[in-house]
């Protein structure tokens, strides 16, 4: 027994595992804001306030008027892989919420100074402040004044990951700009939700960054965010892509779903707004390009490239403003590719891109090539 050597492979201690994994869910300021805003939208909020302190370095706070958290859920709300949204893998294709992994809040507990304030309509103006330990276990609940809804506070993000904290501080401005364009996308697409974003620099005053109203159109949201001048430059995007059963999409989704009629092609529509190829002051606008799949903001680098390419063949001097929502069958893409769900795997992307380019070229060919005076 004494001659037995110490084993070199050991299980990583639980707390360290949690910290390692959390760092992959919450990678930057963008993921903090994205997870919190999506939770508010999932809670049915019609009003969302995002408050930054020091551009998010000191604090990010997201307040909503959604349904709140019920006392029975206080214990589990920030535990890893605890979610009210998904019970099994099979639910994934029919899911209509943003979240489903139950990882965001538990990760934030591991990476920031974190607490929640929440109240439901039946609680009146009496809410609870919830504090958690680093693993997401409920530490204490205290009575606090609160309006109906939930406020999640994330202070000093990455305070315990010195390398990442330093990196964030160094790139703070750029990170903040990225966060704002992410918020633009959520605010533009969420026509039933009032968004309000503010920032307060140390020793400075609280500054309103942008806001939208509820019960609007995407057009009105664009005006609120980018100004009325942008709208004069835009054409409506409304493309129906022919995805014949033979080119993959129809057959594949029919195969996945045995009850579906075999010759039915789900087709794809692209709705939104895009710069007229003839209009503009020559400004480049790659930061004003937003992509969605069934209204979920996401990164679609190949779709973006295809649209920009077609646009460039009509106007070589500027980049377009793009707001493009791909409406498609939930069986024809996969959002479960990366923890942040920003990367979406589209089925039969090659056929989709070809069809998109053809339709967009046709649209620009028919576009009125005079500068519009007014589109309102
Ligand atoms: P997920 O969104 O994948 O379920 P999260 O860790 O983001 O995982 O959230 C865990 C749970 O906490 C959610 O399923 C939801 O029930 C609850 N929750 C989080 N944020 C809010 C909120 N703003 N309002 C109401 N409930 C919330
Ligand atoms: Mg979530």
TrEMBL record:
Residues 222-365 form the DNA mismatch repair protein S5 domain. It comes from the Eukaryota. Belongs to the DNA mismatch repair MutL/HexB family. This is DNA mismatch repair protein PMS1. It comes from Meristemomyces frigidus. The chain holds residues 10 to 385 of 1107 of the full protein.
């Amino acid at each position: 027994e004494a001659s037995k050597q110490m084993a070199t492979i050991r299980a990583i201690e639980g707390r360290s595992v949690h910290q390692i994994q959390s760092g992959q869910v919450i990678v930057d300021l963008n993921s903090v804001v994205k997870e919190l805003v999506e939770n508010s939208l999932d809670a049915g909020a019609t009003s969302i306030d995002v408050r930054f302190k020091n551009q998010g370095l000191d604090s990010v706070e997201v307040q909503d008027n959604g349904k709140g958290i019920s006392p029975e859920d206080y214990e589990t709300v920030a535990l890893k892989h605890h979610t009210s949204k998904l019970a099994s893998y099979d639910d994934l294709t029919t899911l209509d919420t943003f979240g489903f992994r139950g990882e965001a809040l538990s990760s934030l507990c591991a990476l920031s100074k974190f607490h929640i304030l929440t109240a439901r309509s039946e609680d009146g103006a009496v809410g609870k402040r919830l504090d958690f330990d680093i693993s997401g276990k409920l530490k204490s609940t205290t009575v606090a004044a609160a309006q109906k809804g939930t406020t999640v506070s994330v202070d000093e993000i990455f305070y315990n990951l010195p390398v990442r904290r330093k990196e964030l501080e160094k790139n703070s401005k750029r990170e903040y700009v990225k966060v704002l364009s992410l918020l633009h996308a959520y605010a533009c697409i969420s026509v039933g939700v009032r968004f309000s974003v503010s920032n307060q620099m140390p020793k400075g005053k609280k500054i309103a960054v942008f806001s939208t109203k509820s019960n609007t159109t995407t057009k009105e949201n664009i005006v609120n965010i980018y100004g009325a001048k942008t709208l004069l430059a835009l054409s409506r995007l409304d493309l129906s892509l022919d995805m014949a059963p033979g080119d993959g999409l129809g057959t594949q989704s029919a195969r996945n779903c045995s009850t579906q009629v075999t010759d039915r092609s789900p087709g794809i529509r692209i709705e939104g707004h895009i710069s007229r190829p003839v209009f503009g002051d020559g400004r480049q606008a790659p930061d004003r390009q937003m992509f969605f799949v069934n209204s979920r903001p996401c990164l679609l680098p190949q779709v973006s490239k295809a649209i920009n390419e077609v646009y460039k063949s009509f106007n070589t001097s500027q980049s377009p403003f793009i707001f493009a929502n791909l409406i498609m069958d939930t069986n024809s893409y996969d959002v479960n590719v990366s923890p942040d769900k920003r990367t979406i795997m589209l089925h039969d992307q090659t056929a989709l891109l070809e069809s998109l380019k053809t339709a967009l070229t046709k649209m620009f060919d028919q576009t009125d090539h005079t500068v519009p005076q007014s589109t309102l």
